[in-house]
Amino acid sequence: MSPRSLKRWLSAKHCILLIAESGEQVCGYGLVWCHKGTRLARLYSLAVKHTMQGKGIAKMLLAALEKQTSERGRIYLRLEVAVNNKNAIGLYKSLGYRVFGQYSDYYHDHSDALRMQKNIRQTSELKVARLTPWYQQTTEFTCGPAALLMAMGALKPATELSQTHELALWREGTTIFMTSGHGGCHPFGLALAANKRGFKSEVIVNTTEPLFLDGVRNENKKVVLTTVHQQFVDGIAQANIPLSYKDVELEHIEQWLSQGFSVLLLISTYSFVGKKSPHWVCVTHLDEHCVYVHDPFCEPGSDKQLAIDCQYVPIARSDFSKMSAFGGQRLRTAVAIANN
Fold first, then answer.
1. Using CB atoms within 10 A as the burial measure, which of 75, 150, 260, 275 is most buried?
2. What is the pLDDT of residues 94-130, one digit of tens each?
3. Cα separation of 65 and 43, whole Å?
4. How far apart, in whole angstroms, are the C-alpha atoms of residue 38 and residue 291?
């Protein structure tokens, strides 16, 4: 790691940096990044001076990092390691890390990386009944279509995961306007788009009022949003898509998943990035402690966030109620799709 990069990490709020010393000599360090708003952390870097290797320093550093990471409320610690780094892989496995994926052409020399993780709070291990592909949204306003692509891909692996498909879904489901810029997607619009592609859809929303009017001051935009909302309401009725007006609870998501549905959930991004924006994610599974989601947004050009950080992201059940409500009207909504 370069001195410039290390200096930037030292000032990062969600960073844990530990230094190993022998006498007055620095002999190693470990760096963990704790993802805001989730129960996930990533081992960003672990290094031991060459002349000090073989003395158990890496193991002690990692144990101390795990302890501090757990104390910050994180449940899973993830890392990437080169497939040809047998010593490191052996160390991680001996400490309880398990391989759960692989990246091709990950490093500068085009070598592959294993994706490993450890449950550092002794909760249940990551067990996914159905694999869900991860797809990164290509615009700021297409989180809904990206989440829908992932949900459809989990049910039909042949689903085309492309920007062309993403934008087509957006055109069908967009509210046209949002608080600023292009509009995101209405839950009814996403349900209709899935229904059009041969999936059965269901929707839960806790209000009969037009959605996403919070923060929109322009009266013309409000009229457009209201008109689009009513068009979607009519479309849902014409397509006979089951619609329930109530709060989305974890029990509803659990029931959907047990019945073979894929679930899209609207959340507030405030806990993630400190901005109050509606954001669609795809729920992959649940366990006794967490809800796991694929987040389609991965910060472009960031060395702090990688694709691995946006996949199977653990959100504590205790945080679900706060995170799944958006805006002054406390909007809660979810869309479930399944094969016909």
1. 150
2. 998 988 888 888 888 889 999 998 988 754 455 666 7
3. 9
4. 10
Residue extents of the structural domains in the chain: 3-119, 143-339
* Cα–Cα nearest to 269, from 293, 247, 286, 249: 293
Residue 298: strand, helix, or coil? coil
- In this prediction, residue 309 has a pLDDT band, given cuts at 50, 70 and 90, of confident
* 329 pLDDT higher than 90: no
Quickly tell me which residue has 């269901």 as its tokens. 202
Cα(170)–Cα(172) distance, integer angstroms: 5
State the DSSP string of 134-201: ----SSTT-HHHHHHHHHHHHH-TT---SHHHHHHHHHHHB-SB-SSSB--B-HHHHHHHHHHTTEEE
The rounded distance, in Å, linking the Cα atoms of 296 and 169 is: 15
Q: Is the CATH code 3.50.50.60 the one for domain 143-339?
A: no
Q: Which fold has domain 3-119?
A: Aminopeptidase (3.40.630)
